[in-house]
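Build the 3D complex.
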Amino acid sequence: MRGAERLVVGVLGASGYTGAETLRLLARHPKLAIGPVCANAQAGRLLAEVFPHLAELGDRRLEAIEAVDWNACDVVFSCLPHGSSQDVIEQLPARVTVIDLSADYRFRDASVYEATYGVKHKAPARSRRAVYGLTEFAREALADADLVACPGCYPTATLLTLLPLVKAGLIAADRLIIDAKSGVSGAGRGLKEANLFCEAAEGLHAYSVGNHRHAPEIEQELSHAAGRPVMVSFTPHLVPMTRGEYVTIHADLVAGADAAAARAALEAAYAGEPFVHVLKPGAVPDTRHVRGTNRAAIAMVADRVPGRIILIGAIDNLVKGSGGQAIQNLNVMMGWTETLGLDLPALFP
Amino acid sequence: MRGAERLVVGVLGASGYTGAETLRLLARHPKLAIGPVCANAQAGRLLAEVFPHLAELGDRRLEAIEAVDWNACDVVFSCLPHGSSQDVIEQLPARVTVIDLSADYRFRDASVYEATYGVKHKAPARSRRAVYGLTEFAREALADADLVACPGCYPTATLLTLLPLVKAGLIAADRLIIDAKSGVSGAGRGLKEANLFCEAAEGLHAYSVGNHRHAPEIEQELSHAAGRPVMVSFTPHLVPMTRGEYVTIHADLVAGADAAAARAALEAAYAGEPFVHVLKPGAVPDTRHVRGTNRAAIAMVADRVPGRIILIGAIDNLVKGSGGQAIQNLNVMMGWTETLGLDLPALFP
Amino acid sequence: MRGAERLVVGVLGASGYTGAETLRLLARHPKLAIGPVCANAQAGRLLAEVFPHLAELGDRRLEAIEAVDWNACDVVFSCLPHGSSQDVIEQLPARVTVIDLSADYRFRDASVYEATYGVKHKAPARSRRAVYGLTEFAREALADADLVACPGCYPTATLLTLLPLVKAGLIAADRLIIDAKSGVSGAGRGLKEANLFCEAAEGLHAYSVGNHRHAPEIEQELSHAAGRPVMVSFTPHLVPMTRGEYVTIHADLVAGADAAAARAALEAAYAGEPFVHVLKPGAVPDTRHVRGTNRAAIAMVADRVPGRIILIGAIDNLVKGSGGQAIQNLNVMMGWTETLGLDLPALFP
Amino acid sequence: MRGAERLVVGVLGASGYTGAETLRLLARHPKLAIGPVCANAQAGRLLAEVFPHLAELGDRRLEAIEAVDWNACDVVFSCLPHGSSQDVIEQLPARVTVIDLSADYRFRDASVYEATYGVKHKAPARSRRAVYGLTEFAREALADADLVACPGCYPTATLLTLLPLVKAGLIAADRLIIDAKSGVSGAGRGLKEANLFCEAAEGLHAYSVGNHRHAPEIEQELSHAAGRPVMVSFTPHLVPMTRGEYVTIHADLVAGADAAAARAALEAAYAGEPFVHVLKPGAVPDTRHVRGTNRAAIAMVADRVPGRIILIGAIDNLVKGSGGQAIQNLNVMMGWTETLGLDLPALFP
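Done.
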């Protein structure tokens, strides 16, 4: 399939925000044709009714997964919730390349998944083999992947910001404190009181304090990079904005390292990267400046407290943190230009 | 003056948000009569034109400071910016009790003020004597104060959350990491591009990363409580909401301490406090639940990372972080019931 | 009961926004004691868990309606949805005075109610006798009422703005065009996709175009005032704010009338009213300036188009449009000072 | 120039929102190369500093207008404020095609401009000849234009919604009532108190009631279409959202016309239009569904009041209401595909 000129892609879970965003991006990809668009709970409805902003996709209807002939599909993006995603993926024909946006195949060790998500894994071996699709660090592995597990949105922002420094051994990987902030779209389109406008506007609160599900995912990757098990403090907050994810990370430099070395490591890691931008000294990332794009903006600042640095990463949770990175991964898998379909300008103001 | 039945109060800097909020609260205080309301740049304008929500205050006009006979005033609340505030306060007659909401008298050591704010202090000795008005920790000193320096909004939320634990020696005071979030009103009513709706809505960014002015103020008080000099990492963020301030603090327990002891210390410190509420286990503070009130909501959660706890504090920056605490301080100074004029319900949703 | 010194009040439907707001106001009313607080779907839960901002109401639990001894209650505020409200109200003992905030008893002619709401009325005779509690126009009737039907939020803003002019015969009552805008709390706390933050923030849309349920209610009262049946064009919009309701009304002056006469009629109608303020020429109402209060701000402007005027009314939908007006009505019924418990300052910014 | 393969375009007033949006769109236009980017007040600064979301435009600096050799430029988009725009445009070499986004050349009769904007017109004859660039109604004229005056944002939404019906004589053109709502970006990036986050969030107010500057512009075009002078009632409101413009128009059908005929006229007028979509019966426009796009969404609903219809139009004020329509006009002038550079998906949520 690598190098193919045109593929047919299906989308599972198309009635949620992740599904909608994936479709928005797919619609403009020059080498992808949108095939079946599934959302069992809304099967039969017009996509343009469920998501009027996708009117350009025409009179397409949402389908039930069971009603689709998957053999006519080359690639499937699964935007289903964890648990449901593996149920469907394990039933797809082997010819279909799967890009999973859920948590189901992110863990090399399925028992960590099971402990974290409280769901039995149906295919632990496949989870072990799946490629963890943090694109900038996964290009080689993606070339041969048959299943890609796209990182969670928080892990994407966090790992892009931290990995170069952990790999270079410049910061104490076991003393990291990650304070994260997300827009409300990160919680999905499900009907929960906490996501009502009147509950989420004009205020702020932390959630899952001390035990968020993305911590073990971050730890898996940092431990791998550090070469030893590490734990992180990770505290997310819900911010009254629709899109955007922001991590502010407090790190101790190891003895002998300084802020300049940390900056140099970040700049070297991302020199030439189309989507990851290390900001110039003095500039601070802002979710507004990456809104609607697949970009990550990263900054490093020396703290007043000697020996500490502050690292900041900003992404659009629905693009680089979800549908955009998924397509970026497919582009790499296919040997295509990595920015294909993803060269969107940021929407500001 | 202590025990007086009724005082006349003046407000300096009444055309900003802090001034307006102080007036909103003063208007309902049973023992205070509003005297001169000053805002030099807008002198002569009707208060109800500058702040139509204060229509109930009638046809009062803003005055120039120089035009007022301050001898007819018992108390002055200064809501002027730092620098300007000391200029005016040092000219007031000695009979006037001053509650300063600016940073001008918060530092015992004026050289720290000068280094932090880049302004020469006119009255270092008075600054040394001023009472740092974090009410719950200043009641004794307030009884004899002639000048009260109200804490900054971030220091208020931070210190209320930390002081009981630092005083009890339960957490490592020199490894504290404070991630703070503020609504836009914290930046005042001044015309800055960053505070425009289109720049501040629907997104998030950190600011003053690594060097915010409130860090030295927090350190002064924590050092005092710890009995030795400490530094803190303090990183504030601007959140698309009008009111509210939120601090998420990461602390290491000292050897021998545990989360239960930390909780017990917080609960003991604030048992019976009318305005500081330690939430039950499982509850997380939310700025929405204290909006418009003088309350602080505080929580403590044991982190997944052994030996660490997460402390959270939420206040309304314009009330407990500003005008409300100022009035609370005056109530204490006068020997009045501390909640006088401050028994407002929270506005939710 | 009139002139009683203290009453016990119960609240039905206390887990919605209207219920919460009624409780927020009741908590500070000097002559009312909060009795049973009911919400069948959440019976048994702590009120402070369902609405943490009401923490001051202590360890009170939500109760099931059936579990309450209503004979110990003097007054009941029903914040139940239409349909459910009459079901419960018709079962209450006769001694209980009822203030209904739903639509159930607003129509003198139950068949209009039935056509509008698609619900059979259980007590058409009682609906005919109920007092339509637009307080400023209902004081006499309220003195003898046993059941008060509080107006809808849109009708409140609309009728306060229009009634003096229709009564005076200054505007063409059958050519009125009412363009209304509401914050999201007007839609309640129910779980609907349209009320999710991501669906309601950062955008605007009209709804119920051409057939909103509040049009017949407005027409009932305008027809009564005009002395002949009138119809109105009424188009509501959902605005990304939590509280606030705004009506912009386009009216044709009748022959011989002019804008000055219209202004004079409004000013005369509301001179001395504590809660209805006709703004000075040049000032425009803003929902922010009445937020959290029982006030209505009204303005009249002569249009560029000769013979037309533009009328604007702004209220807080949860206060004057709901819980506040309900308490104002009770104050009138009891012969108490009308502002009792309602002298709240506006929360701005 | 018509049919050219590639043009160099300059942008005047590039430090405002309109300028930024024009640049965002130009950056992706396959036949346009961005030349000089001017903003006198910020000349010398990096564009990426002034608008970090445009980082993709590289290390380009803002220039002073006087410093540019305009002979190297084929087309200029002027995003300057009215008054300033004509000052600069009248100095440009004749070879430069001008697309003016200000109000300066929108009026055939310069005296109307002067009365409306309080500014003397420097080139009344040129204003008379300028093409009023409401693209869908200006294609023929655009082919020969040397100067295009892009419509205001409100007139764009209003005229697209009304023109087919006024031209067809189906509605009473002299009884139109236009209730308009705009996001805050419509007010530009200038520093005004009313545009601060704390003043514009969480509330709503009308402005320029009875005398907004866009009314005469709308009237010019409607009068032209109606074949006789007409006046309109036009009342705009500021809504707490960044982008989006919404007009709700109340119209009387003429004798003999009905809602079906009105719908048919709209559908016929816009059949095949790439950017103007008449929604199906039952669907209501939403600014969210056109955000970031050059689309207009239009709906027509029969009112409950016989003989009246409600017309609704929604656009993104910065795209179809500004930079997008400007580029659409250039595409038409050049004989290019009209959607070039404008095939952007809507950003939702």
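Chain C has a mean pLDDT of 97.
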